[in-house]
Amino acid sequence: MKLSFRHFSIAAATVLSLLFCNCSENVDTSDRYVYKFDLALSYLEKHPAYSQYVELIKQTPSSLVSQSTVAQLIGARGHFTVFAPTNEAIDTFLIELCQREPDLLTEPSWDAFVSTEKRDSIRRLLVLNSIIDSGDMDECFMTWDFPTTDKAEFPISNMNDRKLSVSLGGLDTILINGHSPVSLTQRNIRVTNGVVHQVLRVVAPSDINAATYLRDLIDKQKEGFLVMAKAIEACGLMDTLSKVRDEVYEELYLRKLIPDHYHLYIDGHNATWDNWTPRHRLYGFTIFAETDDFWRSQGLDPKAPHSQLLPQLVQWIEQNHQYSESDQFTTAGTDYDSPSHLLYQWVTYHILPFRASADRLVFHMNELGYDLHSPYKLSIPMYEIYPTMGKRRLLKIYESKESDGIYLNRFPELDNGRHGTYHETSCDPGKVGCRVDRESDQAILNEIVNCCIYPIDAPLAYTDPVRDDLGRQRLRFDGMTMMPEAMSTEIRLKRSTSWENQDVYIPCTSIYNYFENMQMNDETVFIYLNAYNYGWCNLHSDEMKAKGRFELTFKLPPVPRRNTYELRYKVLPNGDRGVQQFYFGSDPNHLPAAGIPVDLTKAIGKMNVGYEADTNDDDYNAEVDKQLRNNRVMKGARSVRGSSDSDIERDRDTNLRYIISRQTMDPDKTYYLRIKSVLDSDQKEFYMDYLELCPKEVYDNPNTPEDIW
Length: 709
Known about the structure:
This protein is of the alpha+beta class and 709 residues long. The protein has 3 domains: 5-199, Roll (FAS1 domain); 210-257 and 275-351, no CATH class; 478-699, Jelly Rolls (Sandwich), CATH 2.60.120. Helices cover 22% and strands 20% of the residues. It has 18 helices and 34 strands. Helix 7 (210-220) packs across helix 8 (226-234). The radius of gyration is 27 Å and the shape is globular.
């Protein structure tokens, strides 16, 4: 959010007025308020309460490859959010560190570390964790710009590349990462190059990974997710869950063997800025887990030995039919780490191969009725569909105005007629799904560097009813849902106006295969356009683009049941697009062509396929839709809008869906979609917004035609 001086003055005056009502701290505020002629460094230097912190930032390099210090950085131009600890906060940090790590320092003093290397490392972490550098285009964070969802994270990482969270309490209480209170009186101190917030405890996010966290639960018999931790360990997943970042990519990037940017003018965007390559390739995980309280209610003792607990858990899964009869598995023996074992299949269905913070489980942006400027007033349902770890199976994450929270595998009845509202009308008790707990202290959201763990209120499993319900609905998925790396590294829908985060360059496959589920040739220049231009008539206002003589191959999500499906491709045509050929099949080395090349420059109204805008005659509109389908095209979706509720994808003749393929698909096969330019020009564009997999039961149902939403 851009911050004007007028906004600051009004908000600061409001804060000051609240202080007289709510302040309980004995803090001298006589020289507080506006330091608009100070930089962050000079402000801190003027106040003795920060003397230790100032000394630390003057001794800490701003990066591992820089000779300049953090003090020099925040003493220059920029947009910095500084969570400055007081001397007392730093003293407390050293006391607690000495008690927790007596082999690291002999007494609570910077002079008492056993080695200068360890001291410098701790000092560096303390300093870099305390500052968010918003770069040239994003603004600093005043408290009224903080995330408003409890435990949500700032959209920009701190200087240690860690995301900081915000916990909200009563009487204007704000905690950074759940442990560092922001002072009621010494907050929102506006300086020339940012803002200073005093914190009463050092901001020190944990660096433990998921495997370390779960092993600690097991070793200390800590209840909460002890059963799930033991099951994950038995399935041999700890090594996988210990991964934090791709070190091969890290080294290649630092050695400049991966291009760090590309200058590409594309479709009117980014004419003067570079497209920046991601600095990291991160691993991440999201675990949805039944709690130990649930398992006690089922007669299982979380603290029982593995030899007793695990067979009981397998027996419970089998007796309660927490699996699909169609799947092949075994329950014999204790080889739980075998992908064919029931326990392994059950556990891996609880894990997604990326980290999703509390505010990124379901994205809201361009759906009908949603107001981005009042972002917590939900409207029509939105969902994400992801393949889980292990055997590839679909997990649906859903949220609507009526659901009162986020659910897994929820299948409600919707008011989806041509003149309906598309809101929930009811939900069968057997189709409610599992509610995801993001609010309670049991939710492990910010304690693990590469993982979030969410409690759920009902057992989660890929049962036959779940598969059947997934197989009875149109599956719409944004193109970026196929790229788990885009979630863990927060490339996808990152809330930032910086070009570094908005027009992201992904190197071609031969340089480094950044997206595991996408391969591209050397002549493809791929750019992800983030959702900084609210109003694009795309599913989430973002899109995937490429130029060159492009050829891209995507690994598609699995289907839930063997059936005939339509594979559809949504496009927003214009003169910058190219002409491309689709290829589709299960052998990525021998994909047959799917139809004839498609000209992405033509709006549906100019294609001589029988297009007419909707009228007041529903029967006539249905006949137009049939005529379009006979020509393997469809209008856009009623649920996706552009800049307003009157700007609907379906109503634009510049939005359409191509039917790429109609064929039988098997859930045990992996399918691929290849998109290849058929032009000699290297200046035309590839484009992708969303894909659909729609079963025949939906698109060819004589009793209930497919809805227009």
